[in-house]
């Protein structure tokens, strides 16, 4: 570890301890994992998730798969402010401690809070309780993985007997090759650009609006998913921003404690999917939006 990294980590440790002094109120109130899942199961709410990437973009920084812009930053700030009823906004449940994560993840989130705590304090709604974003990443980061199977099981109940529409990038393949969506009544898909999808936002939104209101939308489209969740929920759809849930589920099924590559993420195009045997996946595609390179 270089000197700068060591110093940053120690500063993060000190700042974390300072905010953990007994009597100090947490920056944001966040439901537990089970409480968050129960809000989805019992309350029938929609969900929009904020990870570290969305918070960083609010500071004007680009991400690997999405270029930053003032329009995106301002939109994310409004959504983080919990502006709609029954649209559960989630952030990482790190304000009461990070002891549930393994060492590497604990340090990552301490470092994140060092540079981003002010963003949460300024833009989160103090009158609301947020969900825990970790419900969609409920395997890799956790030190004790004994509850992970139960959490995935609860999530799979959210879409039991529902017709779902998966909005995803070309390589995502959510639910392909595993049983993540086996509880659903049926799966349809909208395939979108894997990078800078927000440039095709209006086209993606209109493709979604062609489906009837009884569909449950599952979004796996990075920053663009936040705006889709907001607008589709406002239109009367139920929407769950699942983020990288499928990737975490693959690691869970494989029992991998590392972030190993997922083979299906390397496959793109109709020919590539046919060679991989993903014929059911191809049959589920109802729309392809933007320049996806197929």
Brief account:
This protein has 294 residues and is α/β, with parallel strands linked by helices. The chain is built from eleven helices and eight strands.
Task: Describe it.
Strands 7-6-4-5-8 form a 5-stranded parallel β-sheet. The protein has a 3-stranded parallel β-sheet with strand order 1-2-3. The model has no long low-confidence stretch (mean pLDDT about 95). Helices cover about 40% and strands about 15% of the residues. It has 11 helices and 8 strands. The chain has helices at about 5-20, 35-45, 50-60, 70-80, 105-125, 150-160, 200-210, 225-235, 245-255, 270-275, 280-285, and strands at about 45-50, 85-90, 130, 165-170, 185-190, 215-220, 240, 285-290. The chain has about 290 residues and is an alpha/beta fold.
Mean pLDDT score:
95
Task: Name the structural class.
Answer: alpha/beta
In whole angstroms, the N-to-C terminal distance is: 42 Å
**Number of β-strand runs:** 8
Largest sheet, in brief, is: 5 strands, parallel
Low-confidence stretches: none
Radius of gyration: 19 Å
Q: β content, as a range?
A: 5-15%
Listing every helix as H and every strand as E from the N terminus to the C terminus, the arrangement reads HHEHHEHEHEEHEHEHHHE
Task: Name the strands of the widest sheet in spatial order.
Answer: 7-6-4-5-8
Based on Cα principal axes, name the global outline: globular
Overall helicity: 40-55%
Distinct helical segment count = 11
Keywords, separated by commas or semicolons:
single chain, alpha/beta, 13% strand
């Amino acid at each position: 570890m270089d000197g700068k990294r060591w110093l940053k980590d120690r500063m993060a440790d000190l700042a974390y301890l300072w905010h953990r002094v007994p009597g100090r109120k947490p920056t944001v109130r966040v439901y537990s994992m089970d409480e968050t899942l129960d809000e989805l199961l019992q309350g029938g709410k929609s969900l929009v998730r904020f990870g570290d990437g969305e918070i960083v973009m609010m500071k004007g920084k680009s991400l690997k798969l999405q270029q930053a812009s003032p329009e995106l930053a301002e939109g994310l700030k409004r959504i983080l402010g919990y502006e709609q009823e029954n649209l559960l906004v989630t952030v990482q449940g790190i304000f009461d401690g990070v002891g549930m994560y393994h060492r590497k993840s604990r340090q990552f989130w301490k470092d994140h809070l060092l540079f981003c705590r002010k963003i949460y304090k300024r833009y989160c709604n103090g009158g609301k309780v947020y969900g825990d974003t970790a419900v969609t990443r409920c395997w890799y980061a956790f030190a004790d993985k004994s509850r992970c199977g139960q959490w995935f099981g609860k999530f799979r109940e959210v879409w039991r007997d529902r017709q779902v529409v998966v909005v995803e990038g070309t390589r995502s393949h959510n639910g392909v090759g595993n049983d993540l969506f086996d509880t659903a009544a049926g799966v349809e898909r909208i395939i979108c650009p894997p990078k800078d999808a927000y440039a095709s936002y209006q086209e993606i939104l209109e493709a979604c609006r062609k489906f009837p209101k009884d569909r449950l939308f599952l979004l796996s489209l990075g920053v663009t998913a936040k705006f889709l969740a907001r607008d589709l929920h406002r239109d009367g759809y139920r929407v769950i921003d699942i983020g990288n849930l499928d990737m975490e589920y693959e690691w869970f099924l494989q029992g991998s404690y590392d972030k190993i590559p997922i083979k299906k993420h390397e496959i793109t195009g109709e020919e590539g999917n046919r060679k991989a045997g993903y014929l059911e996946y191809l049959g589920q595609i109802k729309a392809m939006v933007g320049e996806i390179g197929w």
